[in-house]
Amino acid sequence: MLDPRGLFHDAGPLPILIDTDFATNVDDLLAVLFAVGSEKLELAAVTTVHGLPDVRARAARRVLDFVGAFSVPVGAGRAPVQGELFVSGYESTYALPGTDPDHFPSASEVFREVSGQHGDNLVVVAIGPLTNVASWLSEPLEHRPRCVVAMAGCFRKGGTDRNVQSDAVAARRLVEAGIPVIFVGIEICRQVTYDTNDLYEIQKGGNGSELCELLEVQSKNWWNFKGAGFSNPCDPLTLLAFTSPSLFEFQRTDVSFVVGGELNGQTVWSDHDSGQFLRATAVDSERARCAIVSTINRVVRTTGPHS
């Protein structure tokens, strides 16, 4: 039976692959730093999805190199096959020192590599449109992931979230792939906030490093884009759902997604004890916020100014 509390029954950190639309929203940066800082996780790979996948891959590579995660491979993925591309205009503003590779391997190559290394112990964390993940899981695989943890779906009648709406075809293919999925819906994400106080707490231990500067720039870019002084840390919250499941309540459920038409991307679900998937139904907002900040702070404190 799928249960987030059972993900850490093995000794040692749990290997994860993060599939992300990195660099549009500051959330993806926070999520990658959370993964690097978590003692419960081994960041096995990062792959990019959505428009401008190579630009996103370069930004992710620079951040990983800056925090010393040189061995974590980065793969450039695909744009959605259906739906509207969403680009904020800040994707190419990751001004960290570093040398960009001449090219990136494809996201599918990176997935096959880390899947072969970690077998069915690998957890795929999907925090962008589900285009890459659905494609991988529809192919014959020697090793299937332990589960997918997805920032996807809106479990509130009539609502949608951008990740599913960007590629509802892929979202439907994911739930038809026969892989356990833990859903963190947008309605749960909106219960947790990230604002200037949290940014200040993260920056305090950073000794003015370029990483602190980047966090401030990307946070304020996103808040200005939204026209608000805060955002919701959807993506690190998705990782927190299985590193600290005691902060959440979960419900077993069956899920499908509407494809096409005026209702494109809407979530259809049915809660019952024999449901195939899990969805988060509640979160301890304050403890979740503190856990995200403290985990990211661990990375910032150990990443001093670079010359």
UniProtKB/TrEMBL annotation:
EC number: 3.2.-.-
Pfam families referenced in this protein's UniProt entry, alphabetically: IU_nuc_hydro (PF01156)
InterPro entries in the cross-refs: Inosine/uridine_hydrolase_dom (IPR001910), IUNH (IPR023186), Ribo_hydro-like (IPR036452)
GO cellular component term of the entry, any: cytosol
Residue ranges occupied by any Inosine/uridine-preferring nucleoside hydrolase domain in the UniProt entry: 16-293
Alphabetically ordered keywords of this record: Glycosidase, Hydrolase
Taxonomic superkingdom: Bacteria
GO biological process, alphabetically ordered: purine nucleoside catabolic process
GO MF, one annotated term: purine nucleosidase activity
Name of this chain's protein: Pyrimidine-specific ribonucleoside hydrolase RihA
Protein's gene: rihA1
